[in-house]
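Reply to dn_fold:

You asked what the input looked like. This is it:
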Amino acid sequence: MSDQYFAGLSNAVLSSEAPADAFVACIGDAVGQKGVSKALVVDRLQQIAEAAGLPESHGDDWVQDKIARACRVPNPAFTEAAIEYHRENNHDFERSSAGPLTTRLASLSPARAVTLPGRKPLRFTLFADIDPEPRKVFLIESLIGANETSGFAGAPGSGKSVLAGDMACHVAGGLPWLGRRVNKGAVLYVAAERAKLTERRFAAFRKHHGRNDLPLAVIAGAVDFLSSGQHVDEIAGHALALAALSSLPVVLIVIDTVSRVLNGGDENSPKDMGALVANVAYLQEATGAHVLLIHHVPQDGNVRLRGHGALLGSLDTVIAIEKGGQIRTATVIKDNDGVEDQRLAFDLKSVTLSIDPDTLEETSAPVVVGAEDTIGRSAAKGVKLPKGAQIALRALETAIEERGAIPPASNHIPPGVKAVTVDQWRDHAYRTGISTGDNPNAKRMALSRASDALLAAQKIGIWEPYVWSAR
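and this is what came back:
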């Protein structure tokens, strides 16, 4: 990789109207190049970011996080072994402009299983070396943290698996999910039950949204997270192969469902559930992805994770999925360091996939569509906002008065509402004094926290690049 190549990337970023977006795109291109050390790529990307002023405008943590996430390169021998297995077994993973980026990943046989190169060493950090201004990175804006673990809990028929699959597709496509921004990346969906139904749901998403290809793959089969770590290693191998083949880091692994991967174990046993928790933690550590577990609720009707509390204690975020009439809701019932009681509303729409020419019987599958959550909105009234959120809300209302316009028609923005861009809101919030300091990173963090609080209280709506008042 020559200096001319990096000079071209630098020019692309510096000449772009959106240098941050161009920089992120250049990271993926640079990491995808062969025959160059990761250290050189990291060094040159940091130089490009500094030339574009990104540490000043977005914060040094933002730059380092973007580079680190893309350059999370696993053991090369391990990744190549996983890729070679698929090639030898006639799984078409070759990239071309004419064909799809990925195909369905078949399960590795035990005889051809690839093993991980050992656990990572324990980290040791002195108090003085802890980042004084850390910034949490989200997979789903203000909802699902990157590199964490979470759970969807719901009764049969609540739509929890459909919602998880929809989230997976949006993350893989870099598409806002139910009004929240996402961090794009490759996704692996472990369909330990009803794999064919899962694939039909993805086919429905493809037809409904017109997305013919996504860096997403499905693993199907009888998965065991109880008796050994073999399947954990195999899934990690597929994830790392998918990352190499799509030139994107795997940012999300969905496990559907806990009861199936427990492989006959006792959900109420601390030993059995502890073994599952340990294997999930190992998978998350080995891949660096967010791991989402789909689980059932008890028959007593309480909306909580079924079984021993070891699982609940291990998860960063738990979202309860419920069906109430025509509206289904996803409510945050646990968040270790975020806002609980956030509620998203959605509905399901049936999509016809095919019609049998002899019987005229339709094959269909559901897709997720947004819905207005009137219950959640009324419950949010009267919530006292933090001072920073109050300042940000007044800044938004002022910005709308001065510069607001009705955005293009969208299913995700209320009709006739005036909005401004997020950048315009940010300008007004900074001028209004959302942060007492002049540090750009401190201002950015203050607005981020205010945005989280306003979204949770349902005082604003965001659908990139627009933001509007919901009062």
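Confidence is low (pLDDT under 50) at residues 72-82, 89-117, 373-381.
Hope that clears it up.
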